[in-house]
């Protein structure tokens, strides 16, 4: 399954946006209102739970300064990644696109596609106000 957000313009430089996203504790600020739980597990990992969904653990998997931050699921049950691709517009603004990639059977994919699309859209929209 492949889901990408619209590209969003952020009022921060590419470096500032990258630094914000690579510190996983900042994802708490991006979560939807329907979040029931957000817990830091380590400096590079966190657990979150949305209403009606199971808890999901994410860990910082890879970074490429200043244009890529990749979070990966910490469980093999739901293998997926969430990438933040950052590009510079000018010295005071950047553009971010979030990309979700996961391997799910067709039944699971059908059940989770809409909630994940909504989640990615919300994260992306909330990024514009950091």
TrEMBL record:
Highest taxon in the source lineage: Bacteria
Protein name, UniProt field: Carbon monoxide dehydrogenase subunit G
Protein species of origin: Psychroflexus sediminis
Upper lineage: Bacteria, Pseudomonadati, Bacteroidota, Flavobacteriia, Flavobacteriales
